[in-house]
């Protein structure tokens, strides 16, 4: 059965079609028919979030029912593919959570595999991660994580001072897991050692890491200096200012920046006190902090917010698509998402051309909003 989306302005990372009809058949984009005139809605590829812990008062570590609700709410908000992201907790809880997550069978937003942030991070840049749960990585622990996730674990964010190069080789070569460096005060040299070994991702650049120093350069400088390294950026205008976002994109180029939400349980929920993991947090608007402190605990956004923010601070919609969808798909090696082209999955977000508010969302050709 065919579905026709008529009179839309298609915005991909590399081209804009001012008016077209999109023909969907069997979950895929069957054809795109170009037309004269101007489309009445903007169509962009579904957003991709590779670092998200929760939202709408649910956390991915709470099990399959929570994951089902999170995936539904993400899909409604335009995130059509995501990596459910667990975080530092007791080792027992991490393993049981990964196991419970692997049991979920209902996905409204596509599951790209699990991501875990921690527990292999040090005290220096722990951020919201509880110190009593921090661990040093080894092959046995990596194997336990993989097994608990039922082989769904695809990405680990870690401090290179808490993982040997041999252990990194093991997770990369044996299990094809993406290593993402973050939550660290590691020097430029230590960071470079891992980049030279094949690590090509940095966890939420600028946040919880060694920064820019003329005599003691750290991870941030190493990330900017290596052309093959991708960088997550939380484009909420809270974790990173407008000026920092401009600086990052200018130096990394638009091709190597990936927007992530790093959203946690209270995101898109009511303001006030909440619990994320077993940590007390406080939400006010898009800002979520550890309760009673100014320490940022996570974000309160979805990737659509990042898309809108990029447009507001002067980036073209094509560049916004690249940062919120295409780059993540390319980095993960998924060649059927991140673009609106024939034979790609019909993951489509339709927006008002002026306000950029979401009107309709399709995932695998199915209308979810």
From TrEMBL:
Look up the record and name the cofactor or cofactors this protein needs: a divalent metal cation
Protein's UniProt keywords contain Transport: no
- Residues forming the catalytic site: 262
Where in this chain does the record put each Amidohydrolase-related domain? 42-368
Annotated keywords: Carbohydrate metabolism, Hydrolase, Metal-binding
The Gene Ontology biological process terms listed for this entry are: N-acetylglucosamine catabolic process
Cofactor info, note text: Binds 1 divalent metal cation per subunit.
Any idea which GO molecular function terms this record carries? Answer: metal ion binding; N-acetylglucosamine-6-phosphate deacetylase activity
Family classification:
Belongs to the metallo-dependent hydrolases superfamily. NagA family.
PANTHER family referenced in this protein's UniProt entry, alphabetically: N-ACETYLGLUCOSAMINE-6-PHOSPHATE DEACETYLASE (PTHR11113:SF14)
Question: What name goes with this protein?
Answer: N-acetylglucosamine-6-phosphate deacetylase
């Amino acid at each position: 059965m065919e579905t026709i989306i008529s009179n839309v302005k298609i915005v991909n990372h590399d081209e804009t079609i001012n008016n077209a009809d999109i023909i969907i058949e069997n979950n895929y984009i069957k054809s795109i028919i170009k037309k004269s005139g101007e489309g009445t809605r903007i169509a962009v590829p579904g957003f991709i979030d590779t670092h998200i812990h929760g939202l709408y008062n649910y956390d991915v570590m709470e099990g399959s029912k929570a994951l089902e609700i999170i995936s539904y709410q993400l899909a409604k908000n335009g995130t059509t593919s995501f990596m459910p992201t667990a975080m530092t907790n007791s080792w027992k809880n991490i393993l049981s959570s990964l196991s419970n997550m692997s049991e979920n069978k209902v996905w409204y937003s596509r599951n790209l595999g699990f991501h875990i942030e921690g527990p292999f991070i040090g005290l220096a840049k722990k951020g919201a991660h509880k110190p009593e749960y921090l661990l040093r990585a080894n092959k046995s622990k990596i194997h336990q994580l993989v097994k608990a996730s039922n082989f769904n674990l695809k990405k680990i964010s870690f401090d290179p001072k808490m993982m040997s190069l041999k252990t990194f080789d093991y997770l990369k070569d044996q299990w094809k897991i993406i290593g993402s460096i973050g939550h660290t005060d590691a020097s430029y040299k230590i960071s470079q050692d891992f980049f030279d070994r094949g690590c090509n991702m940095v966890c939420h650049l600028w946040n919880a890491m060694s920064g820019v120093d003329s005599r003691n350069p750290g991870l941030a400088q190493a990330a900017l200096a290596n052309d093959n390294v991708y960088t997550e950026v939380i484009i909420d205008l809270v974790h990173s200012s407008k000026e920092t976002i401009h600086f990052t994109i200018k130096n990394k180029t638009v091709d190597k920046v990936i927007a992530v939400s790093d959203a946690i349980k209270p995101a898109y929920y009511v303001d006030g006190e909440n619990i994320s993991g077993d940590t007390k947090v406080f939400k006010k608007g898009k800002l979520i902090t550890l309760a009673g402190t100014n320490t940022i605990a996570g974000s309160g956004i979805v990737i659509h917010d990042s898309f809108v923010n990029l447009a507001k601070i002067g980036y073209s919609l094509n560049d916004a698509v690249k940062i919120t969808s295409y780059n993540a798909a390319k980095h993960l090696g998924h060649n059927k998402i991140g673009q609106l082209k024939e034979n790609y999955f019909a993951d489509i977000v339709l927006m008002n051309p002026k306000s950029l508010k979401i009107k309709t969302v399709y995932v695998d050709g199915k209308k979810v909003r």
